Amino acid sequence: MSYPKRVYDGDGGEINADFRPADTPPNVGTADADAIHYLATTTTTRGEFGLYRVEMSARAGGPKTHFHRTISESFFILGGTVRLFDGEQWVDTRQGDFLHVPQGGLHAFRNDSDAPAEMLLLFTPGAPREKYFEGLSELARLTDEERARFFDEHDSYFVE
């Protein structure tokens, strides 16, 4: 393997970093419940990746088994116990555990514990996952056809 194609051709570097303080409020949800923090969106990374911090309340559940056709998804557990499905089995993970799921890989996650949990989600390459996260609260109001279109639009394919 080699380094990717050069993106920056300048000689002196640029001031272009994007800092997000730890006390920034979540982008979706609230700080005392389920919440998602947009750490690095596909816009800020120029499509390279998307990184999100997910805070789950006790017994928050999670999405059913699914896969993505265009993006990989990686999970890094920051705290609590997150149940991750790796396509074969459910694993109770803890702080420091990591799971990478390539495109097409079956996976799911949930918090079934009596305590909050927190993890990082990394999507590569970057995709506009913000619209997906923001649209989840509207799913109950959608028809079956609209819901199917929403998931297809956001590269999320659920299996029974």
Short recap of the structure:
This protein is mainly β and 160 residues long.
Mean pLDDT: 94
**The CATH architecture:** Sandwich
Please provide the ordered H/E string of secondary-structure elements. EEEEEEEEEEHHE
Q: How is the largest sheet built, in terms of strand order?
A: 1-2-3-10-5-8
Unreliable segments of 5+ consecutive residues: none
Q: What is the fold-level CATH name, i.e. the topology? A: Jelly Rolls
SS-based class: mainly beta
What does this structure look like?
With 160 residues, the protein is mainly β. It has a single domain, classed as Jelly Rolls. 11% of the residues lie in helices and 31% in strands. It is built from two helices and eleven strands, in the order ββββββββββααβ. Strand 1 and strand 2 form a beta hairpin. The chain starts with 27 loop residues before the first strand and ends with a strand. The mean pLDDT is 94.
